[in-house]
Design brief:
Blueprint lengths: L1 H20 L4 H20 L3 H8 L7 H4 L14 H19 L2 H12 L4 H16 L4 H19 L4 H15 L7 H10 L3 H5 L2 H20 L24 H24 L3 H15 L4 H7 L2 H19 L2 H13 L3 H18 L2 H19 L3 H15 L8 H12 L6 H27 L1
Helix pairs in contact: 1-2, 1-16, 2-16, 3-16, 5-14, 5-16, 6-8, 7-8, 7-9, 8-9, 8-21, 9-12, 9-21, 10-19, 12-22, 13-14, 16-19, 17-18, 17-19, 18-19, 18-20, 18-22, 19-20, 20-22
Length: 450
């Protein structure tokens, strides 16, 4: 077992280092390390086909509970979390369908027009919109379109778009923390531990709501001077929001499908429909609504991200099957000395700091079995540690340009438009904002749950 543990840890560290260095694409790294985990850890080290099957976790897909929960959900973190992958794939298809008809561009232009193209009101409303959209749609997609429209507006209204783009990035990560489907770490946590949309909304969502108000005030006063308009602009001849719509019939269908997705997600704990079922259903509806555009929509799906998740789960499965994660949990429990407050603070701080420099998705996937083991050995409530892990990974990633995928996308869009963002420029406001939000979340958890 010692040999297997050494190999599993080595592959995990190699995977993380390669992801940080970006020598190869992320999906190539995780899939390569995942296949090596199956061959070297389970084959050479453990000689266990059972460990391979548990990690591949294919049997779960054909079980009825995978699609419709018929009894109390069982915690399942072993191996590939197919529910997460299927749900993300389904939402990707829905988002591509919405993007095709111009929904996101229309929404941004409509909101800007509603506040009469005044820069500061646009600044505040776009932060709010970024958070709300990220509650239901992947934050990468939200920022991709929001940053693009922000830069277009900045060229029309003659203001510096960077403060607005950076604030939108932070608010997207914050909004994503509010729900189970808002951010990939939350999807992994929710599907692994059996939590529902409402569980997240009434716990992490409450924290995110409080923090959003503080965040808007912080960024408003931090960037107020930077958002001064260079010259007055006549807005009468601006393009109308309706001009963004490329397919009116498809636009209406997209809105209906999005609303159906929201209703199904909000009620899935009552209906018994799993996120895998919801993701599949929404994907099918999207494709049925645009039969002539099916190849176009499917072509734009981010398959590399889906492969990234698959490989990641295999590598983490190696750590779980060899008992490494139980050792880590025991170490955290020993450091905290059984002090619940210290244990929660450690989970939040370690999650936030780690997520600021490494991808928060693999970190969240790694920590799930750790907090499960901690809950069993220390008696601390698993939900309490879950909310601490969720907020730490989701918000901690906001502190640096590489901490979350939305950060990378947003700064990339700005850079390509002629507004490069360096570490100093990004961290100047993001780090203080992250510290403030993490402080509020820690205090909230202490007061409400402990």
């Amino acid at each position: 077992m010692l040999v297997s543990q050494i190999i599993a840890v080595s592959l995990f560290l190699v995977m993380f280092i390669l992801i940080i260095l970006e020598i190869f694409e992320r999906h190539v790294i995780t899939m390569g390390c995942g296949i090596l985990t199956l061959l070297l850890v389970f084959g050479l080290g453990m000689h266990s086909m059972d460990a391979v099957m548990k990690t591949l976790n294919v049997k779960s897909i054909i079980s009825m509970d995978f699609w419709i929960v018929q009894h109390a959900a069982e915690e399942s973190t072993g191996g590939i979390n197919w529910a997460t992958i299927i749900f993300i794939a389904g939402m990707m298809i829905m988002v591509e369908g919405m993007a095709r008809v111009g929904f996101f561009r229309w929404l941004c232009m409509r909101l800007a027009k509603a506040v009469h193209y005044k820069v500061l009101p646009v600044f505040v409303s776009f932060m709010i919109m970024s958070s709300i959209l990220a509650m239901f749609i992947d934050s990468i997609t939200v920022i991709l379109f929001l940053a693009t429209v922000t830069i277009e507006l900045s060229q029309l209204l003659k203001f510096n778009p960077l403060p607005m783009v950076l604030s939108e990035i932070f608010c997207a990560n914050l909004g994503g923390s509010a729900t189970m489907c808002g951010d990939p770490p939350n999807i992994i946590i929710g599907t692994s531990l059996g939590y529902s949309f409402s569980d997240f909304f009434f716990n992490t969502g409450a924290m995110a709501g409080i923090c959003l108000v503080i965040t808007i005030v912080f960024f408003f006063f931090s960037y107020k001077k930077d958002l001064k308009v260079k010259e007055q602009v006549d807005t009468k001849h601006f393009p109308s929001p309706e001009s963004a719509i490329t397919d009116k019939r498809g636009f209406i269908f997209s809105i209906i499908i999005f609303l159906i997705a929201v209703v199904l997600l909000v009620t899935h704990s009552e209906t018994g429909l799993t996120v895998a079922t919801i993701g599949t259903f929404i994907a099918v509806l999207t494709l049925i609504a645009a039969p002539r555009h099916i190849p176009e929509i499917l072509k734009k799906v981010d398959y590399k991200t889906l492969l990234f998740f698959t490989g990641l789960f295999m590598v983490v499965g190696g750590l779980e099957q060899t008992g490494i994660l139980e050792i880590v949990a025991g170490f955290i429990g020993k450091i905290s000395g059984g002090n619940v407050y210290l244990m929660i603070a450690i989970i939040i701080c370690v999650s936030a700091i780690a997520s600021a420099f490494i991808d928060n998705i693999p970190f969240a996937a790694t920590m799930i079995p750790v907090i499960q083991s901690l809950s069993v050995t220390t008696g601390v409530s698993l939900p309490t540690m879950t909310w601490a892990l969720s907020m730490g990974t989701d918000i901690g990633g906001s502190a640096t340009p590489i901490g979350a995928s939305a950060n990378v996308v947003g700064t990339s869009v700005a850079g390509k438009a002629g507004y490069p963002v360096g570490w100093k420029e990004y961290c100047r406001k993001a780090v203080p904002a992250t510290i403030i939000v993490m402080g509020i979340c820690t205090l909230y958890i202490f007061v409400r749950y402990l």
